[in-house]
Amino acid sequence: MKRDSSIMKWSVALLLLIVLDVVLGILLCRVSLKSNDAPETASSVHSISDLQSSQKISESDLTLSAPSETASSQTAEEAAGSESTGAGTAGAAWMTETTESAGAAGTAETGSSEAAESQENHFVQTLAGAGAASLPLFLDDDDENGEAGAGSGDTANSGTGTGGSTSGSASNGSGSASISNGSASNDSTGNGTGSRTSAEVTRLLESLTTEEKVAQLFFITPEALTGNGQVTQAGETTQTCFDQFPVGGIIYFQQNIVSEQQFSTMLSSMQSISESRIGLPVFTGVDEEGGSVTRIANRGVADTGGDIPPMGEVGQSGDSQAAYNVSLQIGTYLKRMGITVDFAPVADVHSEVDTLIGDRSFSSDPAVAADMVSESVKGFHDAGVMCTLKHFPGHGSAAGDSHSDQVSVSKTLEELEKEDFVPFQAGIDAGADFVLMGHLSCPNVLDSTIPASLSYRMVTEILRGQLGFDGVVITDAMNMGAIANYWSSGEAAVKAISAGVDMVLMPVDFEAAYQAVLQAVQDGTISSERLDESVRRILSAKMGEGETT
Predict the structure, then answer these.
(1) What is the pTM of this model?
(2) Degrees (nearest 5) of the Cα angle 359, 314, 321?
């Protein structure tokens, strides 16, 4: 019995030793596994870092500091040349992109969210095609690549090299443009070198006072702004006056242009004044059609690459490429100097009764004129300049000169649709930025002698509703006899805005016109919604956001 008890004790002891050995083995195995896991984890993190490094362009080539919300709103001059402006700095479309591989790496490892977030917030350039050279995220106005012309597709944010039509959709909530098919989101048709979201336009719109919004509706001469007889620089007087009336646009004439250097400096200063005052660019415009209507070409004040012929001569060639070429030529030197808007091309169809337009029109054939106008719009856009179709509904069918008095177009709406509207529709379809309303009475369309520029039916129902134009509508000069002989500056301006016009060009008395529109807004004659509608279009054009056609 004693021996059996001893055997039992040794058996239990042996069993305990075996259990202890197993437990120790398991513990040692776990320690070993942890020891082996440590370098694997480090290796994983290291590979994510490597992956990120391999996916991004070197910081010296690309890394940019994302602008604050305020700063981005104050660089909109970038867009007005933006989009087509030589005057402002080129508008940068701030774009974020998370690469597919970085996203995958971020979900593969627990704890790698910081690396993924770093990759997501890194501002990168989307290459336009496989093997494309690395380029800066945005082009400055004087960047060679930005002026290279149409269709190069080498820049990530410019389908034409100048902020032209690109694919993709803007992310309204994030304030950054999404990327699609290697191009930045910007549906604008060449009228901007940068894209901003609708949310940014809304934010800027809401930041403006009523007085500032009303000022944006006016496009005036520097003389009208300052009260001086001739203005050839933008200095303290201009700044003081602009601080009081931050107008939407300044139009320049031959008397303002002494030399290319002087004019370029003046425009650059004007943009700085506008940016400082309102955080937005100012439209800088000129009548540069070619032929007899030029402020710069054919006058020896700047290098324009040769004389610019009248458009009738271009149209006679029958080659629409010639219209593209001459508009590209004009746009190139305008952009170089800082002009953002050209009041061209003429979209009127010349007719036998026409005594004003003549060879300013491409043709008396609506189809020929339409082809020329369409290509002209593309030429301006590829140069980086906004353009204007004029004089809607068609001055080529009017007998007389609206500069001196009212003139009338006797055609019916059906006749206008078949003839005069054809080039305007082609230009609108090509993406024209502005349409200029002629001071033309159309009694067989409007049942009255009111000029088209003051007619709700012509502006809102026909131009916008029927032809589908949703860009900036501007009047012809309001100091012309067809308007000034019959209405005061204030009356005419209020009528134009009430009709659906967005900008009033050159009223006889700017301050009177401004005060009248301001009063009309304050007393409800012009609703705040109507005011915001026009200011939104103006801001969108300046910021290069969305489709401004």
Answers:
(1) 0.66
(2) 150
